[in-house]
Amino acid sequence: MGKDVLLAAVIGAQGLKGEVKAKTFTAEPDALARYGALHDAKGRTFEITACRPTKDGEAVIAFKSIGDRDAAEALKGTQLFVARDALPATEEDEFYHADLIGLEAYDNEGRLVGKVSAIHNFGASDVIELVRSDGDTVHLAFTRETVPVIDIAGGRITIAVPEDDEPNDHVE
């Protein structure tokens, strides 16, 4: 089964006719309607009948099967996905975050550090999350300096492990 890509998350109802307000993760908020029906994590499908951008990164969406405010309110928190293969091909040096999930992460010396488990954005910039073999997680800024090599076909990335500024052999 192919990967799903998160395109939007419902953040609330909009008006009385069943429209929802959604946080979008597409370059253009109105691009959501280009990919056909979306689905949630449980497999329920949502056919978009109207989509209009509002403020940056948000859109108001009408779905075929949602006709009133109560039904729209019930969708709050719903994440909306599309199958990865429904998205356009990427250019060289471009990728979807979903393409990175599961790639092995190696340091500059070829040692396995962990696997990519997620890409987050907590407001300042993207953060890549790695899960090490012992189950611990590592979060690194997702920049060209920190992740200089992304080899999706090879199933791996290379990370530049930050150096400690101070020795850790003392207690303050």
Provide a quick synopsis of the model.
By secondary structure, the protein is mostly beta strands.
Strand/helix succession: EEEEEEHEHEEEEEE
Protein structure class: mainly beta
Strand content: 35-45%
| Largest beta sheet: strand ordering | 11-10-9-8-13-12
- Which CATH C-level class of the largest domain is it? Mainly Beta
Share of helical residues: under 10%
What characterizes the major β-sheet? 6 strands, mixed
- Discrete helix count: 2
The CATH architecture of the largest domain can be given as: Beta Barrel
**First-residue to last-residue Cα separation:** 52 Å
Q: Looking at the structure, what is the overall shape?
A: elongated
List the helices and strands and how they pair.
Blueprint: E1 4-14, E2 19-24, E3 38-39, E4 45-46, E5 48-53, E6 58-63, H1 69-73, E7 79-83, H2 97-100, E8 104-106, E9 112-121, E10 126-131, E11 137-141, E12 149-151, E13 156-158
Parallel strand pairs: 8-13
Antiparallel strand pairs: 1-2, 1-7, 2-6, 3-4, 5-6, 8-9, 9-10, 10-11, 12-13
Tell me about this structure.
The protein is 5% helix and 40% strand. The model has no long low-confidence stretch (mean pLDDT 88). The protein starts with a strand and ends in a 14-residue tail after the last strand. It folds into two domains: 4-86, Beta Barrel (Elongation Factor Tu (Ef-tu), domain 3); 97-158, Roll (SH3 type barrels). It has 172 residues and is mainly β.
